[in-house]
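Workshop exercise sheet. Pairs work together: one partner reads the sequence aloud, the other fills in the structure field after running the prediction. Swap roles for the next sheet.
Pair: D.N. / O.F.
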Amino acid sequence: MHPFVKVLMFLLILLLAGVVGSRLLIAILLTLCLLAIKLQFKVFWTTLKRMRWFFFSIFLIYAFGTPGELVPHFPLGIAPSFEGLHLGVLQISRLIVALAALSVLLTTTTKKELMLALYMLLQPLKYIGLDVKKFSVRLLLTLNYVDEVAIKSKANFSFRHFDDIHRELEAVPVVDVVYFEKSAFNLTDKIVMVVMLFGLGVMIAMRFL
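Structure field:
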């Protein structure tokens, strides 16, 4: 599948996760999690473990900060609401959907393919002055240097390394060339884009009508 179509699918999944009901959200969550586990279980599981305290914080904020019917006989002086518990689980599910979709996208797409998709996606912004080619190239180089620094520094990688990355990017010779290998859309890509466009239209209609 064309990388541009993959990125569009990723964005559509994020939109779907924000508007669909609980049952459909659970179906999307299970499907994406199974895909992420099948493709790269270790990385996906590590990402979820690193996010566990963030998930817990989100759950507490919604559970105790949302007005509604309080949970009876709660042992503490304050109690969560049923509405807050539901919203907390819902928001965590949406976050996991986003992480699983991103994991699938990164696993099935190379960095250069992602940059090509980003380049195509940002093309309309060139009419308002954004240098799309330069932005895409610098982002690709940044990702390459992030990988190199992360490998060298292993677990000690931190935000201070971005200063090193910036200096490395500034030192890149202007004669360096980065090639984006363009590929044509096949019939499957075109069908998927039509289906996504139809789905987007349905979501807009359901939202405003």
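Discussion prompt: The mean pLDDT is 78. What would you look at next?
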